[in-house]
């Protein structure tokens, strides 16, 4: 048996100090008849069996646990039958397998919610692959979930693309949304999200009614591709990045869900949001692990006009750099904490979970162009499964596969908070895609509220239904 090894500082950040499961995932929706569970297991053993990263067991700290760090214990192999399971949405609430047909989008969404809101079992390498029969309207899904200390979002993409059949096409965009991202290289390939560094400053928290306990929730929906493309063309010059569009839409959606920020309780401080940045170099393009940093910026929630919010996000991201509280600050702060010991890194991670530090996280990325398939069954859509963040926080993820955009909202706020937030965000994307003066609900445009706004077009009414019962077809 090989000896165990210590976790890196970024891996230690994701090991329970924040009181959440730390489970990340990605679901791939396919058309056609699903493969058999044994056939999928054989494919996993063939294509993933030699990867050392998937044979690591996460060990808790040795006594005294308060001062020690977690460790990785490498195994000779993983048990494919325990890591690859099959379920059917018709009986998904019982977490059992079934051979009958299905297609209940609500059950599929509920299953995805359980996968990210529950911690993975201890004692085995912390990842699972789930074959979901009858995922949504005749489609089946393959869902990969993992502990965030083991894999980041880019690693999930690397593993699934290795499992599927296909070759990335030319012109694949791997942009991070930061135009001058080269300055991040000094931070190194293994950095966490920015912790609450001294002097970083806390902002305002999302307003939550007193007396209600925050609960995790997940919703996902298909997004109109034309609206996203139009929103990206709404800014002059090179246009807007996906991150700029998603951050601006998130700011507007939070205004819709929580009301005018001028009426939020507490001092009028900035509301901070963040998005991850992949720090892999070209030579590390296929590296598995956790190799991300993040950018923390104030969100323009006080701006009432969608165009102003998009322009403000462009300005905030343009100002990012190592001299403006970026990756260099992260490197110095985490490095200093790591010198004190794993306990200091965990304390830093815990402090970063204060309600006002960064309650909003946005992730936007494109899946490599294909086409992709699974034993002849074409890949139709990628559904991102971001992690549950600390109580009072929300996480929004937008993916693009071959022009099929999918939005997922994971909230840790009010019970059932994900569906209205996802619906509000799809409407914000539509507002960003239109001239400001003619956008419903924008200054100078026709006022709309509640059901009236939703019934204006069948498309966005369907989008809200999608967050409740799976996406519309």
Give the key terms.
Chloramphenicol Acetyltransferase; alpha+beta; about 475 residues; six-stranded mixed β-sheet; disordered C terminus; single chain
The helicity comes to 25-40%
CATH class of the largest domain: Alpha Beta
Shape label: globular
Compressed to H and E, one letter per element, the order equals EHEHEEHEHEEHEHHEEHHHEEEEEHHH
β-strand percent reads 15-25%
- Coarse structural class: alpha+beta
**Major sheet size, sense and barrel closure:** 6 strands, mixed
Q: Can you name the CATH architecture of the largest domain?
A: 2-Layer Sandwich
Q: How many β-strands, per DSSP?
A: 15
The number of helical elements comes to 13
- Poorly predicted tracts of residues: 92-103, 170-199, 436-473
Count of discrete domains: 2
The CATH homologous superfamily of the largest domain: Nonribosomal peptide synthetase, condensation domain
Query: Largest sheet, order of strands side by side?
Result: 5-6-7-2-13-12
The CATH topology annotation of the largest domain reads as Chloramphenicol Acetyltransferase
Fold and architecture overview:
- The protein is of the alpha+beta class.
- It has 2 domains: 5-163, Chloramphenicol acetyltransferase-like domain (Chloramphenicol Acetyltransferase), CATH 3.30.559; 181-370 and 379-469, Chloramphenicol Acetyltransferase, CATH 3.30.559.30.
- It is built from 13 helices and 15 strands.
- The strands form 3 sheets. A 6-stranded mixed beta sheet has the order 5-6-7-2-13-12, with helices on both faces. Strands 8-15-14-11-9-10 form a 6-stranded mixed beta sheet, sandwiched between helices.
- A hairpin with a 2-residue loop joins strand 14 and strand 15.
- Helix 4 (105-117) packs across helix 13.
- The longest helix has 17 residues, at 242-258.
- The chain starts with a strand and ends with a helix.
- This is Wax ester synthase-like Acyl-CoA acyltransferase domain-containing protein.
């Amino acid at each position: 048996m090989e000896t165990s090894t210590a976790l890196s500082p970024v891996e230690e950040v994701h090991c329970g100090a924040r009181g959440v499961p730390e489970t990340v995932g990605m679901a791939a929706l396919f058309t056609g008849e699903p493969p058999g569970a044994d056939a999928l297991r054989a494919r996993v053993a063939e294509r993933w069996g030699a990867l050392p990263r998937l044979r690591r067991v996460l060990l808790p700290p040795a006594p005294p646990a308060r001062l020690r760090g977690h460790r990785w214990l490498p195994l000779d192999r993983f048990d494919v039958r325990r890591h690859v399971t099959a379920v059917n949405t018709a009986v998904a609430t019982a977490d059992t397998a079934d051979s009958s047909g299905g297609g209940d989008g609500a059950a599929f969404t509920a299953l995805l919610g359980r996968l990210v809101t529950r911690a993975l079992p201890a004692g085995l390498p912390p990842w699972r692959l789930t074959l979901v029969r009858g995922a949504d309207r005749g489609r089946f899904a393959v869902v990969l979930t993992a502990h965030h200390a083991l894999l980041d979002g880019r690693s999930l993409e690397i593993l699934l693309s290795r499992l599927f059949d296909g070759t990335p096409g030319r012109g694949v965009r791997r942009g991070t949304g930061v135009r001058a991202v080269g300055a991040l290289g000094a931070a190194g390939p293994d950095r966490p999200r920015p912790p609450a560094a001294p002097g970083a400053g806390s902002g305002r928290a999302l307003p939550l009614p007193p007396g209600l306990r925050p609960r995790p929730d997940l919703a996902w929906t298909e997004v109109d591709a034309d609206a996203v493309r139009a929103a990206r063309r709404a800014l002059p010059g090179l246009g807007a990045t996906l991150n700029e569009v998603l951050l601006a839409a998130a700011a507007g959606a939070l205004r819709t869900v929580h009301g005018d920020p001028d009426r939020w309780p507490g001092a009028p401080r900035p509301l901070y949001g963040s998005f991850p940045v992949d720090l892999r170099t070209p030579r590390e393009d296929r590296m598995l692990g956790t190799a991300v940093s993040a950018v923390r910026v104030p969100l323009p929630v006080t701006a009432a006009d969608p165009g102003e919010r998009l322009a403000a996000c462009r300005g905030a991201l343009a100002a990012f750099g190592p001299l403006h509280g970026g990756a260099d600050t992260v490197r110095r702060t985490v490095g200093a904490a790591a010198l004190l010991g794993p306990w200091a890194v965990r304390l830093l991670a815990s402090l970063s979970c204060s309600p006002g530090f960064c309650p909003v996280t946005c992730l936007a990325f494109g899946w490599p162009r294909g086409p992709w398939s699974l034993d002849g069954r074409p890949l139709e859509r990628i559904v991102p499964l971001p992690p549950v963040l600390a109580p009072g926080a929300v996480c929004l993820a937008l993916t693009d596969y071959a022009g099929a955009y999918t939005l997922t909202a994971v909230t840790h706020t009010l019970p059932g908070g994900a569906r209205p937030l996802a619906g509000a965000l799809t409407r914000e994307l539509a507002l960003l895609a239109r001239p400001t003066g003619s956008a419903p609900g924008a200054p100078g445009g026709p006022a709309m509220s509640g059901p009236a706004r939703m019934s204006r077009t069948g498309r966005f009414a369907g989008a809200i239904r999608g967050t409740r019962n799976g996406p519309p077809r």
